Every structure is written in C-alpha cells, then in structure tokens.
Amino acid sequence: MIAHVDVDGRPEPICGMDQWMPAPARILAVQTENFNTRTFRLQFVDPVLREQFRFAPGQFNMLYAPGVGEAAISISSDPARPGVIDHTIRVVGSVTRAVDAAGPGGLVGLRGPFGKPWPMKQMEGHNLVIVAGGIGLAPLRPVIYSILNERDRYRRVVLLYGCRTPEDRLYAHELEQWEDRGAIQVLVTVDNATAAWTGPVGVVTNLLKRLRVSAQETIVLVCGPKILNRVAAWKFLQLHVPPSRVYVSLERNMNCGFGRCGHCQYDKFFVCRDGPVFCFADIADVFAKEEI
Amino acid sequence: MLRAVARRRQRAAASLPNRDAAMKGTTAMVVSHASPGAPRFLPRAALADLVTLLQDEGFTVVGPTVVDGVVMYRPIDSPDDLPHGVNDVQQRGTYRLAEGDPELTFEFASGPDSPKRFLFPPQQQLMQFRVQGEGFEVTAGPPDVPKIALLGVRPCDLAAIRVQDRVFGQDDPATFRCESEPWYEQAREQTLLVAVNCTSPGGNCFCVSWGTGPEAHEGFDLSLTELRDGFICRAGSPRGKELAAKLPLREPTRTELDLAELLMNRACEHMGRALDTASVKELLEQKREDSHWDEVAQRCLSCGNCTMVCPTCFCSTVTDVTDLSGEETTRVRSWESCFTHQFSYTVAGPGRDSLRSRYRHWLRHKLCTWQDQFGVSGCVGCGRCITWCPVGIDITQEVQALRNDSTSLPAPIAPACAFSSEGSPP
Ligand SMILES: Cc1cc2nc3c(=O)[nH]c(=O)nc-3n(C[C@H](O)[C@H](O)[C@H](O)COP(=O)(O)OP(=O)(O)OC[C@H]3O[C@@H](n4cnc5c(N)ncnc54)[C@H](O)[C@@H]3O)c2cc1C
Ligand code: SF4
Ligand code: SF4
Ligand code: FES
Asked: Where does A120-249 sit in CATH, by number?
C-alpha cells in the first residue's frame, strides 16, 4: 500500500473530504500579473468558512465557475492569513476564462484545500533552493510567505525563477521587495530579454552555476513545466543533493481532487492526494519516463 | 452512518484476499464470522417463492434476462423472465447466446453487464443547485437509493464488489483518502445479493487464477448452486438466514451435495483462460518499458470497451450540465475510461498521448498499481474485457507475452482445462 506520510499538517478540506458541493466565494480584487495571468483575491461568502478555512503551502483548491466547471488552482497567498485566498490564474480555457470574465465582485465556488503540501517542517534548519518556472511560482509563493513570517527557522534561501520575458514575471513587485529586504536571494532569468533587462538570459537551470550548494544541508523545491522539473531535479542530484531532499510539484488532469475519480493517476499515485508535491525519492523510478 | 462504516470496514478487512495469497492464486477468502450456513436444498419450483418473498419485502428483484442477444441484469417479475435453457459461447472478441440445457436456468457466464451498475451507476446526478443571491442553493440531491435484490450474482462479481468497497467505501480519513461515499454506502447496505455459483464457466473466465470463483464463499446473503431439480442453497448473512427460514428448504441428500461439489470441481477445470498471477505485480513493475506495449498498440483501438465492462473499474468524470438560462446546474458523474485522450488532458496536452501508454496504464493499473492503491488486485478474472474487446485482446495472453519477454504473441491457451491438476479450486 502507498504509505501516506506527511499527513499531519494537512488541513481538513471545507465541506469534508468528498463533498462535491463548492462553497461560494466572492472575488474581492484582481491583480494583473502579465498578459494572460491574473491574481484573484477570493473570500468565502460564509463568515464561518472564512474562520475555518486553513491551508498549507503547496495545496490547491478546485475553483468553480458557476455553470461552467472546475479547475485545480494552487493557493498562492499567505497561509497565515487564510481569511482571504489568492489564486494566480493563467487564463487558458473555459473555466479560467469564466472566472476572469466574472471580475471583481463576481461569485465563484471553492472546494478544498486538497493535496500534500511542501515539507515545511523538514525544511527548517536547512538551506533552501526554490526553483520556479512561469506559473510554477504560484504554489511556491505561500512557501516564501511562510519563510518570511518565520525567517529564523530556515537558513539561506534562494529563489531561482525563470520566465519567458521580463514582462511575464509574476509578482514582479514582490520579487523586488523580497530581494531588497535581503531575506531571500532572488535570481530571475528570462528566455527573451527586452532592452531594459539587465539580468541573466537563458534557462533557469543555468542560474545554478551562480550558486554554491552544500549538498547535505540543502532542500530543493521545484515547480514548473515538465522539462524544467526534470532538468532541475537532475542537476541537483548531480550536485549530490540526496533524492530525499528534492521535492517536485506535478500537474495532472484533475476532476475530484480527493482521490476518487482516477484522472490524476501517476503510476501508483493519485497526484491530487499523494501529491501534487512529491519527494523525488518516491517517484525516482518513473520521473524520467514518458506518458506514465 | 458511522456504525455502518465501521461494519463495512470490518467486513472488507475480513473478506479481501490478501495480496500474497491472491497472487499465488490460492483460495484466499478468509472464512470469517460471515461463513455460510449449512447447505440446504431449494426445490426448483421454490425459486418463484424466493422471488415473491423478496418482492413482498419491498425489493425490486433484478436478475439476468436476455436483452438484444446478450444477458443483462433487468428487473424481473418472476423466474419466468430468467434465461432458461440459455448457454453462451465466449471467445476473444466474441459473444453468442446458444441453446443450452432446457432444464437449467443459470447455464451462462458473465454478460457485458455487471452488478457494478447498481452500486456505482454509469451516470448519476450528484446534486442540482442554482446561484441564489450570495450563494448556491441546492435544489436536489442524488436520486433515492433503490431497494434492489440482485439475483444471480456471479462469484467473480461478488469479489469485484469487495474491490469497489475499497474504492468507494472504507478509506481511512486519517491518511487523507476519501471518506466513504454516502450513496454507495447506502446502496451497498440495502442491496440484497443472491449469488449463483458457476457450474458452466465461460470461454474467457479465469476466476480460479485469482481464487475468486467459481464458488462464492462469502459476501452474499444467499448462494445457489444449480442442480437439475433445484439448488443447493446457503445463507451467508443474518439477512440471508432470515430469508432462508421463510423458504421451503429441505435437507439435501448426500448425492445432491456430492453432485454440487463435483460440479464445482469440474468448473474449476473448465476455466476458459488462466492467468499466472504469481508475481504478476513484480513483473509489471519491471515492465514499464517493453517493446510489447508497442505491439499491443498495433492492435488496440482505444475504444474503452474493456473499462466499460470491467466490474472493478471506478474512474469517473463529474461534469456540470446547465439549463439554458445558465442558472440551474446539475452535477452529473459518469463512468470514464482511461483510454480516452481527454482523461489525462492538461493544458500541455494529454498526459498519455500514445495508445501504447494508455494500454500500458490500464493493464498496469489492473494488475499492479491497484494493489499499491487498495491492497488488492484490480482484476477478478471475469473475462469480460477479453470477450468485449472488438479485436480480441486478451489480458491473460498479454501478461504471458510480457513474461516471455517476446514481442510476438504466445500460442493461444487451450480454451478448456487450463487448470487441471495444477489448479487450486477454492
Ligand atoms: C494541482 C494543480 C495546481 C494548479 N495550479 C494552477 C495555478 O495556480 N494557476 C493556474 O493558472 N493553473 C493551475 N493549474 C492548471 C489548471 O488546473 C489548468 O490550467 C486549468 O484546469 C485549465 O482550466 P480551463 O477550464 O480554463 O482550461 P481548458 O483548456 O478549457 O480546459 C479544457 C479541458 O481541459 C481539461 N484540463 C486541462 N488542464 C487540466 C488540468 N490541469 N486538470 C484538469 N483538467 C484539465 C479540463 O477537463 C477541461 O475540460 C493547476 C493544475 C493542477 C493539477
Ligand atoms: S480486467 Fe478484465 S477479466 Fe479482470 S475483472 Fe476487469 S473485465 Fe474482468
Ligand atoms: S485508470 Fe483505467 S483501468 Fe484503472 S480504473 Fe480507471 S478506467 Fe479502469
Ligand atoms: S483528481 Fe480525482 S483522483 Fe485525483
């Protein structure tokens, strides 16, 4: 049987584990991040749920657009302030378009939080390297907030972030703040530079050259497109970071979010329940394989 | 409800073949508190009494009937509706009804239909709701659970129900698996199961390989073994015992008992197929990459028939159906197949694009990863996927081919007596 470690620290989803009924929430504000991505700030209509709702970094909600359907969306806000919930959404299809069209004041629904979070407890006392590509920064932002909230619990923290162009950066304003405060080191690279860009150009894993990684004391968190996940994980293993200290968040098709519909299967795992965050050691034998 | 969950957990724990035993193909049914009562004899004419008795207790009696040339589970009024004198011929990709012994009622094997349809309906409304001011107003829930007595459930299908109990019923919330599904839970509690042991296994059956048949040892309310003049009848639950007490049963004769045993032994020897279940999980753990997957992909049409007829497949998709005004939404859950592109679709494209990967996922899920997920095999040996595959892909042969490490198919397995002295009848 699959061992369900790390279950502690996972908050109980609102409306129980397998209720299909979304809870209504209002869009309080919308912040444009780039040409197709916006951060929606949501709040439950029901004040009791606002009080009850808790989430851990890396968890996701099933976001419901009334009359259209649901999509799995990571929570990108601060877990210490669960009364408002941020979802950073790339507008790509029917559900995400409908949520976008609803705009500020619009009514949506939420089921969640689902999924296994990043290993926050294990990360304490370690150096952290956070590798994100594109929208992959969204599920890592709660990690950064948690680190900033309790900075002494962690040692050196580096964020390596890659995106297409400087204009595509998510949370551009905050990236600068984090860097300026000196709390974490932020390195951003872009595939295509603009005239004003003075930073590095190239794939995010190139940034590794600029780091000295002490293999035994470092925990690595990765979230990005498949190719980034693979290359990043591989590079860190090459640097002798043990597989048990490399964590990757995966995307699969999701329908239920709680391990029942079968859609998100990845070898023996239900990504919605056994992931989306996986310890590399647990998926080492399938990670490099295609179409699992 | 909680008590029901606890009860079901107990039942499932006691009843599931553990992996090692199941994989050795031995009879793994742990005989528990639910061990069947002493055999009694139900005269053939009294089958009608059983149906009437169930109807009087408020059950809709559902049994095998001939519909459009296949055996399907449908509501019946009396035993007259059952397929008397009907046999079936099942081969790879073939199903034909044939004339059987006119004095026998249950001489056929599994048709395309299975009891799964009644506990996990192919399409089901979960709820209906509308946007109402500040929230969603639920206007309807799921349909009421019908009170059904299933007559003629085959032992492999009883095993399949126990497999689905693990999927829908009894996960441990402490491990963040889902809670039991209320509708399934209630349907499972309410549905009465009258098993019929298989005296005439089909051309694609291999329950003996898994130890799930041809005789049911538990998990039923009543079980019947068909003889010419009637049935050996056992009660397998308190509810079954109560029913039995109201039926005109008599002591069976020694000859009748011997005959029933002989029929069961003979059935074991007449499995149409066999699967070498020993270490099949380990085999498939090693065979993530194998040229044989490419070979199957040449034949597989990705039609999904195997998943639709399989009594254990549980994948589903919930969709929202909205009325024209866009106000009233109905959430409907439908069976889904891992053979569709849409099943694994993400914005980056389908997770399993090639046919090879979809067949591989199906086979490995059934025989390998299912055991990691639920502690039990996802195949019970009913043979349906072999019969209903339009190109006759045969799960037992594909495993054999993977074992032989060859890209070509092995010689077909002789359809009869695949298990002779080696077989271990339950
Ligand atoms: C754990 C997890 C976290 C995610 N977090 C974010 C996030 O923070 N921000 C973000 O922008 N995106 C995120 N995604 C991706 C997001 O779920 C998809 O982009 C979204 O489903 C697209 O929905 P749509 O209806 O707008 O797209 P469409 O392209 O219209 O979808 C069409 C169909 O494709 C299917 N589909 C496509 N992708 C997915 C998917 N990943 N899961 C299920 N069905 C899918 C749906 O069934 C849908 O019917 C996440 C995905 C997962 C699994
Ligand atoms: S995999 Fe095939 S033989 Fe096994 S239970 Fe499913 S339909 Fe029956
Ligand atoms: S993944 Fe495929 S084989 Fe497994 S239960 Fe779902 S439909 Fe059946
Ligand atoms: S999304 Fe349904 S099982 Fe994972």
From this structure: 3.40.50.80
